[in-house]
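Page 37, continued from 36.
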């Protein structure tokens, strides 16, 4: 298991959930919710977090249909991850996140929170579920989780 702090990212159209791991890569915890922006303020904030925590890797949830097919959200998450990696200069990996938001809603309901008041927290919990899944997968396999961002090849 590689050591070092990782960030988990759940990319949404309105908000981005952010979670972090401990330095040993054992436990993911919610960190904050960042407003999605057109002007790169969201990526700048994530870059600040990367610097503050000394993050060595970012795990971005890859939303796929239950069948495994790509969706519009898949393209959005991949585009965000590619741009983020170029701007923060930290490796970014994409990890399957099917049902992470559903799991986050279920966990919050079980803790007594209603879904309307918990919307910003849902994104953090989803990011935590994505990151914990990645940590567990790496611990079980001995290999980094998901897949790295592929460099774009020009025309």
């Amino acid at each position: 298991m590689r050591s070092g702090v990782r960030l988990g990212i759940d990319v949404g159209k309105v908000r981005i959930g952010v979670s972090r791991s401990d330095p040993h890569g054992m436990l993911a915890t919610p960190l904050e919710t960042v407003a999605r922006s057109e002007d790169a303020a969201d990526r700048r904030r994530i870059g600040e977090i990367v610097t503050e925590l000394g993050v060595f890797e970012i795990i971005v949830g890859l939303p796929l249909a239950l069948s495994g097919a790509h969706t519009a959200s898949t393209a959005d998450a991949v585009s965000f991850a590619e741009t983020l990696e170029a701007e923060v200069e930290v490796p970014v990996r994409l990890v399957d996140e099917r049902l992470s938001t559903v799991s986050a809603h279920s966990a919050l309901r079980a803790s007594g929170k209603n879904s309307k008041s918990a919307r910003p927290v849902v994104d953090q919990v989803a990011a935590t579920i994505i990151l914990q899944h990645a940590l567990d997968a790496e611990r079980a396999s001995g290999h980094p989780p998901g897949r790295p961002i592929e460099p774009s090849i020009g025309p």
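The two ends are 38 Å apart (CA to CA). Flag for discussion at group meeting. The beta strands are 6-11, 15-21, 28-35, 57-62, 92-96, 147-148.
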